[in-house]
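Case study B.
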Amino acid sequence: MSDSVFFAIAPLLVVSLGGLLLMMTEVFATRRADADGPSSDLAMGTFITMLAGAITAFALWLVGPDNLAGAKAVAPYLLVDRFTLFFDMVLCLGGGIAALLAGGYLPEHKLDRGEFYPLLIFSTAGAMVLASAGDLLSLFIGLETMSLGVYAMVGFRRGSMRSTEAAIKYFLLGSFAAALLMYGGALLYGVTGKTALAGIGAAIRAGVSSTDWGILLLSMVLILAGLAFKVSAVPFHMWTPDAYEGAPTPATSFMAVAVKSAAFAMMLRVLISVFGDPLSTSWGTGWPPVVALLAVLTMTVANLVAGRQSSVKRMLAYSSVAHAGYVLVGVVALVEEPGTAQGSIMFYLLSYTVSTAGAFGALILCGSRGKEAVSYEDLAGLGKRHPAVALIFSFFLLSLAGMPPTAGFFGKLYIVSSSIGAGLHTLAVLLVLNSVLAAYYYLRVMEYMYMREPAAGAPIAVPMRSGYVRAALAICAVAVLVLGLWPTSSLSMAIDAALALR
Amino acid sequence: MQSLELIFFIVCAIVTIGGGLITIGSRMPIRSAMGLLTTIFGIAGCYLLLAAELLAAIQIIVYAGAVVILFIFVVMLLGSAAVSPRDAGSGVPRYIGAVTFLASAIGALSFVLYRPAPAAPAIDGAVAEAATKAAVKLPALPEGFGTIEKLGHEIFTQKIVPFELTATLLLVAVVGAMAVARGKQHDPTRQLKDEAGAADADSNAEEAT
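Model:
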């Protein structure tokens, strides 16, 4: 059985089949008029599907991808290695948490329609394809599957102009970025005559003529621009705050977590397998200076702008842009310290996933219908009125800021140490300075929650009651704590996964 | 490239780019749709040049035959409401943007294509020489390239994985389109509409009596 193709791509199959099954049950389910909306059971079904996907991926990890004979049949379109499996787990985690958050958020805000969950599941499946794609064809299909689902989720609140605007903006810019990526890919194919990433990389390593090298450089620029858009690096970030703010918060959390992780997985694969030759990775002729510039711009601009936001959701959006900048520092370090840098990137993405999903979840929990937590003022005095909610929000904010007993601390620590190991002292210093800058606006939320009193007559946020959101927060909190106290085992998993990508 | 093919390519390219310019430049949506149609025919011509006859036919059937027609239906249904109004602001920032983009694109292209030969430390002369020779020669077309038979064989044997993944892509597109289109019924104004509907029903009942 273990040589079957189906066994090799089991995580993807489990998630997709679960999605189909849920769609069918939603169609044929009969609901009484007074019953709860579709979220009441779809959210749990979606979470279980994602959990099953993550567990399958972990099982394959234990079996060892090298023992899966069936994996050869789907290569190079889907590569089954530890890198893929690691990202499968991270993406399923992000998608599952988003499903739980949606289970609380959608009914509360009268958006309770069953389509959200299949979109979430198939977007996650697209993200998993993207993370495992070893060929330009499947890479592009995965990217589009993921993006189309997310576009629809962003525009899910049709009654709101802001949501529709966000969806249109994201859709147009996203299509443009996909076109840039595809153009870059077409040029790569034109030069090397291959679509498999490994084949393209081998052809480039074998040497190209100077004209072809020029075209390769052009395609590298196009692909980097497309990737930078997808991970929302400055200056390709303009859509991020609008799309994140307009989307329903569970969709925002999914975008910040799963879409970003999958985009970084794609970036790592493309940069390592295609542009991994000495010429492309040199500081004189290749991508490192470009990515370094992107990293510096992303960190600095995002942190400066985030500090001036009045909406907490928008602040979290800019903070997710800033985190992309920290990861990009790790990407630059790939050249000198391939194993540790990549392991640190993947560990960072894992810790960032649980911290960010938790922060967005806490923001959801802080508000209820008509009394959402939007601005800092809405949160004033929350620490006194609802200490438990404020405490858990603060916990995730501290993790995002990188305080010691949390996952965020080790994430940053590993990125900094790998960039110092790679000799990138300036970038490491800038990263640390930026974390200090970021602490300002994370702590500001806590200042409002604990040290301010709401102005008389001002709207205040009233926390919602939802078992789903609480469950999601509990999962995130445990994960943040475990990663913060015992990071070694997950880090060694990340490094194992990183070594698969050679 | 033989000269006849070159001429054909240049004609196709001009048709494609000209159609694209009409599409984005025209204020009348119907003209934009026609511009798009022109572009699609130009691209179909390029496919013919690449010996992908089936793809050229599909391009015309699907895009020209279905997609553009749908656009035109929508434009017709909207009628005069579809004409975009003149912007109140001046067009200067837009032109500056367009010129900047064009200049940087041309600049980047010329930098890439006409800069001095790169200092290529990794490639010694002989390898570069061989690579130049190898790169110019594209592989000969395999037997039956571009035919339905060959394409079907390719899709259902070697490229079965991306083909199946496309099914997921289409499914997401359908569900997404439904979610966005159906969402209108659930907007906050629904209450008002329901009340209006109830009022209509009342008046109907009165007429019946």
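The two ends of chain A are 28 Å apart (CA to CA). The remaining cases will be described in the next quarterly update.
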